[in-house]
Amino acid sequence: MDIILVPGFWLDASSWRDVTPALEAAGHRVHPLTLPGLESVDADRGGIGLRDHVDAVVAAIDSLSEQSGDRVVLVGHSGGGAIIHAAVDARPDRIVRAIYVDSGPLGAGGVINDELPSEGDDVPLPPWELFEDADLVDLTDEMRVQFRSRAVPEPLRVASDAQELHDERRYDVPVTVIACEFPSSLLTEWIAGGHPFVAELAAIRDVEYLDLPTGHWPQFTKPTELGQLLLGAVDRGR
Length: 238
Fold this sequence. Notes:
By secondary structure, the protein is α/β, with parallel strands linked by helices. It is built from nine helices and eight strands. The longest helix has 19 residues, at 50-68. The radius of gyration is 17 Å and the shape is globular.
């Protein structure tokens, strides 16, 4: 199975390095992406918007589908969840499962996060004190130093552009949500209560919930456990 891994803000393909061994050992073909503007700190991020990131994922889907003829699995962490959801919307017939890692599908008209501090066309990784305590669970001082040393500013418009969706067949693609910062029981409570935050998730017809208690970056804090959960979700989607 081809698995496309989409990182969250400030991260490139290498952020999945400690997660992929379990998937590769099981025979899957893993394709972690570095999205436009995230190639380096010095990359030009002017004019790069949310749709550019979505288009990069769609291009990867098309390329893999042409090579193998098979459908693919999409994995999105954090802000990458909004990106893979738009890619599912663009290619619903080519996705066997979408997996959201401490993230979820963003509905039409929503934005990922337009409140992050920015500098020109860039959204740098904020100081740790601007994050919630739940974000930082298990993220040791050493991990924080390593994260900040590898962090690349996010293109401003990726954070602030409105999500565009067009094809309701996206609701037919099976979904796995891996909940980290808070238990999945809260998500199901919000869905039952009609909370607008989870309206798009509530519309999806086949959703499974898995719990991995840790902070917002399980690829750093619990990479082995995350790899095993992804492997199980991928195998169920075959």
